[in-house]
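sanity check this record:
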Amino acid sequence: MIGNENGFSAPPGSSGRGQSADDEEAVGQFSVPGDDDNAAESASISDVPDALSGVSMELLEIKRSIEDGMRQNISQAGGVRAADAFSDGGNIQGVSIGLGEGASDSSSGEPGLPALTLYVAEPTSVDRAKAAIVGAMGVRAVASDKVPVNIVVTGVIDAQPHRFRLRPAPGGVSVGHFRITAGTIGCLAVGRSAPRNSRLMILSNNHVLANSNGGVFNDCIVQPGPIDGGRCPQDQVAVLERFVPINFSGGVNFVDCATGWAWPDRVRPELVYLSGGVPAYFRISNALVAPALGMLVGKSGRTTQLTQGRITGLGATINVNYGGGRIALFQDQIAITGLGGPFSAGGDSGSSIWTWNQQRNPVGLLFAGGGNITFANQMRRVVVALDINLYT
């Protein structure tokens, strides 16, 4: 393996391959988190429960009951969306704890106080949403007029697909597994132990770098992504190194994330945005922070570039559409509302999300969205699941 002046090793083999017979041997060396890793990941963070410590137990119990109903529904459906999926309780795409917006057709919560936020595929009223949850999930407690509810229309929550080529490639630009469309480089990372601590890696989503569980170790990763003209071998920046599998069988997911082992001279730790048509670079911190309701955050991504948003939901449980009828259930997600426009769009998946202040501390990893709502994994879960430290 070739080293460089920074001590990082280059990926094995020649660049530019998709898959070959030689990759079969490499697959045996490729490790992904097993049951123990997932358990450690799930137990690794206490920040969201702490952030919700001021929320009443009654509201949290109702949220958990709705989550149980969603989990049961998707398990019975085998992760496949039915033709009548949006009738009754099927209209409920997710649930989180947010803040009340005042009495209206879409909110029954007092302004600024904790409220149950329901993400729906099609417009509905608070009363109709409550009735659907009671009828389809048996959660009778939600029917009470004392339970504050916000209704947010997201449509179907999709896993989302700087289109230009840059060398070395920074965070915030188009990237992708050679068989997908395109997503975004979130930032760089290194493994926490040998031999991965000598690998400089790009961080993004499983559905961006690993083709939604379809990739294998050493698969070609290109910048820009294939839909933006990236091809192997001429545009390769990395090979698939590790991913956390997405469960499409009704099990609970916490992260959609993957790493690509990069050639050190083909990437850089800065993030980028266009300023007057000219690339402008900046750095984010490697010190992670927990999300908080009302927190201002930013991201730089392939499609919508540099945007600002506000965290409006914590502990979100959502059904995410991965195409081809495949649905995955995610829990403990961050919900973000864009300020002055959408926070993200298709192609921004994989973007790192950071505090909108001088520190720019990483908070989350963008992976899905619907309507004006963006959803992100907690970055603290991501680094544990992939056994990495951010290199920013």
The CA atoms of residues 124 and 249 lie 28 Å apart.
